[in-house]
């Protein structure tokens, strides 16, 4: 689109009619008026632009320089997406990836726990105003699978997961059309896309949503690609994210028993073992109880969050992988998260300045030095970090896209940047009239599944 510019023209008059003489004083005054008008206009424009798209919290006002909303960062001024969601009965094999071979895995089972994002994102897309029922007009395609839950519940083996994925993908003409570029998959655990053993062959161009940005500690190749994939927040218990009464209400800093805490299993990880040993040396400063996740001594959800909120700082070391749900949970009990995971990736880094709401400390320097550093931070500064964290924690909540600030809305903004108007693949070709064909020069609308994949 071209821009139209209005040019001011100064017309000199050759008339000899008597008129006021334009003196140098007049000229200087006119220039001063022009410059004053220009700067006032610019000042008003900047003031308007800085507030138009800014998220407004119901909490006390704090400086929001650490949070720059999506429209201010080159994402466009509004969301404009059309996402097609595959139906579970549309493709043979898709139900097995959602409910297991015998269809005994329930949605209620899979929506709980740290992997619940695979269900929540699917449900929210089904209700979303950005959903389309027409494949031909879709910008993106969402493939619903609950494979982490299905695998953990014994619904499918690793081999069955791999075979079923290949079977499902082979029946998707639009996946073939783009080489998978416009198809979205959720892998909500530390294993990421590695749950699908052949991901590198079939999903190497697709958009992967995962809380895990690094998996090279156990794999030769990371399944996360910063160009095409998205880091998403973990699934915090609904009892802490819903508006109104929560499981646990934050304690004033003066009433918190500990300086810091670590609530988690050791899992044989060096950093976690170091924290447990450190808590034994300084039990009055660092709490790290032995947690039971099963049996009669299992820590209940409410008890867990009560422990978590009884410290000023919540330590979040890496476990089996670099991400930890504890980072997100800490914002809802209002302790400052301290990341002890060097390779961690965080969501929405284009709009959130994490240095203002959290601390990242080298995992190689876990020890007394860490506690001394945390102890040196004044309560006033801790309160400031907590207040800023309160402003953005809505980004960790999976609520409908009608909410101006939510994990789902954030994901949609990020997905909008992934949309490509042109989806080239090695198996699609086009002719002079714009028709898309395969290697046999058959038009796309005549392709018949199942089709072989690369």
Automatic annotation (TrEMBL):
Region (Disordered): 1-21
Entry keyword Electron transport: no
Pfam family, one: Exostosin_GT47
N-terminal signal peptide: none
Example of a GO MF term: glycosyltransferase activity
Protein localization: Golgi apparatus membrane
Predominant cellular place of this UniProt entry's protein: Golgi
Domain of life: Eukaryota
Domain Exostosin GT47 span(s) in chain numbering: 80-368
Gene Ontology cellular component list: Golgi membrane
Biased amino acid composition, Polar residues: 11-21
Lipid bilayer topology: Single-pass type II membrane protein
InterPro entries, A to Z: Exostosin, Exostosin_GT47
Keywords on record: Glycosyltransferase, Golgi apparatus, Signal-anchor, Transferase, Transmembrane
UniProt KW Glycosyltransferase keyword: yes
Protein family (similarity comment): Belongs to the glycosyltransferase 47 family.
Name of the protein: Exostosin GT47 domain-containing protein
């Amino acid at each position: 689109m071209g821009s139209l510019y209005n040019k001011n023209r100064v017309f000199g008059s050759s008339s000899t009619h008597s008129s006021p003489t334009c003196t140098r004083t007049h000229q200087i005054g006119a220039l001063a008026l022009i410059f004053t008008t220009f700067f006032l206009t610019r000042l008003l424009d900047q003031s308007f632009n800085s507030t138009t798209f800014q998220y407004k919290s119901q909490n006390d006002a704090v400086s929001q320089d650490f949070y720059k909303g999506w429209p201010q960062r080159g994402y466009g001024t509004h969301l404009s997406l059309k996402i097609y969601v595959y139906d579970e009965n549309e493709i043979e094999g898709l139900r097995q990836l959602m409910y297991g071979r015998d269809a005994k895995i329930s949605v209620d089972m899979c929506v709980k726990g740290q992997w619940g994002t695979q269900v929540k994102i699917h449900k929210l897309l089904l209700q979303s105003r950005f959903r389309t029922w027409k494949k031909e007009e879709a910008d993106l395609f969402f493939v619903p699978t609950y494979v982490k839950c299905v695998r953990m519940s014994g619904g499918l083996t690793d081999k069955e997961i791999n075979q079923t994925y290949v079977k499902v993908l082979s029946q998707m003409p639009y996946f073939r059309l783009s080489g998978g570029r416009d198809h979205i998959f959720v892998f909500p655990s530390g294993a990421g896309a590695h749950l699908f053993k052949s991901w590198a062959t079939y999903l190497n161009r697709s958009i992967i949503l995962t809380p895990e940005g690094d998996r090279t500690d156990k794999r030769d190749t990371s399944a996360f690609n910063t160009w095409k994939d998205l880091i998403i927040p973990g699934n915090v218990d609904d009892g802490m994210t819903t508006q109104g009464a929560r499981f646990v209400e934050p304690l004033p800093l003066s009433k918190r028993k500990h300086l810091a805490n670590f609530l988690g299993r050791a899992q044989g990880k060096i950093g976690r073992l170091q924290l447990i040993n450190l808590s034994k040396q300084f039990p009055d400063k660092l709490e790290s109880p032995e947690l039971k996740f099963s049996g009669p001594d299992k820590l209940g959800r409410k008890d867990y969050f009560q422990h978590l909120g009884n410290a000023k700082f919540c330590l979040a070391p890496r476990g089996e992988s670099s991400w930890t749900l504890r980072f997100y949970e800490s914002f809802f009990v209002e302790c400052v998260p301290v990341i002890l995971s060097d390779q961690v990736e965080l969501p929405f880094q284009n709009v959130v300045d994490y240095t203002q709401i959290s601390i990242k400390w080298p995992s190689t320097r876990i020890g007394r030095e860490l506690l001394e550093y945390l102890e040196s931070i004044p309560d006033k500064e801790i309160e400031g970090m907590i207040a800023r964290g309160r402003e953005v924690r809505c980004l960790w909540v999976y609520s409908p896209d009608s909410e101006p600030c939510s994990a789902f809305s954030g994901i949609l903004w990020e997905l909008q940047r992934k949309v490509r108007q042109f989806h080239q693949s090695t198996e699609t070709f086009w002719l002079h009239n714009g028709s898309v064909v395969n290697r046999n020069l058959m038009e796309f609308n005549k392709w018949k599944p199942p089709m072989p994949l690369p």
